[in-house]
């Protein structure tokens, strides 16, 4: 009885499996038929939109090489999240124009070689703190046109991160209350909600800062002094006002001129809003704090230059020593070879003379015997 029970159970399990396989095959068949029905037939029928949806979900990433980097090209695929099944060793991920809403700690975890991530034009509102924690090689991140009002603090500590596109988001000043150790070169922050220049600490590598189309109300030399390599600054479409009657506008533009920063809008140089006459502000003084910050920044660059010089010097010395050793070695080898050849020749000569002596002896013996 018991055994019967078990076997019946087993058979029911088996039949269940059979059923599911059958069902699965049925679905496959259906899918196949639907997929192979010509579009003309389907167009206009009530199922048409459904089939088109299905087609787009079948769209796949294309892989390619960009400057020898493996790239997954996955733009406009209507993704709601970043899938985990892409090639694990991709170095470039282009997921522009999808519908990703969130980057969790796990979203990018399968991909550990990413240097370039493009996520512009998605719906990202939330990025978890460790979302980029496994991206030690990340150099460029594009989050343009999303809904971010915050960013993970660890993002600003990635060792190679140099370019950040953060335009068209909802970022506020508080996002930048972080320690920035990444070697940022370019920071695009156009169309956000900043009321001042982000305080990033001393940033010796920053070349471009775009804060156009924000709600920045004031600016001073101390905001820019920590960026001692800054070349391009875009302040257009803000609501900056300088204190009437002071020389703040003149001081600021004098600093920008002195540091040779290309600034937009360029009519800032006019300071037409400031009623103070130019003569009053002829001898502008920069604050001590401005110099302090600037010098701190320059000192880092100076130090880097010196380290690099020392490194080059050491490399030069090491190369010279190795070349010298190589020459000595080659010379010794040649001398050794020549000596050996000479010794061998000497030996051969000795042997030859000995042989000659022998043959002479033999000959003389022979002649002696003959006579
Ligand atoms: C994501 O990682 C951060 C930092 O490791 C952690 O504090 C947070 O709880 C994680 N979030 C989730 C949902 O696991
Ligand atoms: C700053 O960004 C805006 C918007 O993308 C762009 O039009 C402008 O040219 C940028 N400024 C600079 C100096 O690159
Ligand atoms: C001063 O500003 C006006 C308009 O604001 C502009 O047309 C003019 O070119 C500016 N002059 C200089 C020297 O920048
Ligand atoms: C700036 O530094 C100079 C010299 O170090 C000092 O005499 C001056 O009082 C300082 N100014 C301010 C505002 O701290």
UniProtKB/TrEMBL annotation:
Keywords attached to this entry: Leucine-rich repeat, Membrane, Repeat, Transmembrane, Transmembrane helix
Transmembrane parts of this sequence: 21-44, 313-335
InterPro entries per the UniProt record, alphabetical: Leu-rich_rpt, LRR_dom_sf, SLRP
Keyword Cell division recorded: no
Single GO cellular component term: extracellular space
The UniProt record lists the keyword Repeat: yes
PANTHER family the UniProt entry points to: AGAP008170-PA (PTHR45712), INSULIN-LIKE GROWTH FACTOR-BINDING PROTEIN COMPLEX ACID LABILE SUBUNIT (PTHR45712:SF22)
Protein name: Tsukushin
Organism: Lasius platythorax
Lineage of origin: Eukaryota, Metazoa, Ecdysozoa, Arthropoda, Hexapoda
